Amino acid sequence: MEKELVLQNKIRMWRAERKISQGDLADMVGVSRQTISSIENLQFCPSAKLAFLICIALEKTFEETFYFE
Fold first, then answer.
1. For residue 12, with 0-12 CB atoms within 10 Å meaning exposed, 13-18 middle and 19 or more buried, which class applies?
2. Helix, strand or coil for residue 7?
3. DSSP 24-43
4. pTM score, two decimals?
5. Which long-range contacts link 25-32 to residues 24+ away (Cβ below 8 Å)?
6. Structure confidence by residue, pLDDT tens digits, 15-55
7. Calpha distance 1→32 (Å, rounded)
């Protein structure tokens, strides 16, 4: 059986580095704080557009922020 690919992320780490709360990041990208929490906890996979907006807000590239393990 093939292992399911799960899009991992470093959002929590980059937020902490920049001292940005989940709520602040959510406001910056136009979603709820719960959405950011769900993405960080791998309960929700963001759309390409939302992933890109998160990267811009965190001033990181897609490759620095999202990855497959």
1. middle
2. strand
3. HHHHHHTS-HHHHHHHHTTS
4. 0.92
5. 25/54, 25/57, 25/58, 28/53, 28/57, 29/53, 29/54, 29/57
6. 999 999 999 999 999 999 999 999 999 999 999 999 999 99
7. 36
CA distance 41 to 56: 20
Mean pLDDT of the region 51-69: 97
Helix (H) or strand (E) holding 66: strand 66-68
d(CA 26, CA 68): 23
pLDDT of residue 63: 97
HSE, CB side, 13 Å, CA atoms: give it for residue 67: 8
Q: Please tell me the distance from the alpha carbon of residue 25 to that of residue 57, in angstroms, as a whole number.
A: 7
Q: Are 53 and 36 a contacting pair, CB within 8 Å?
A: no
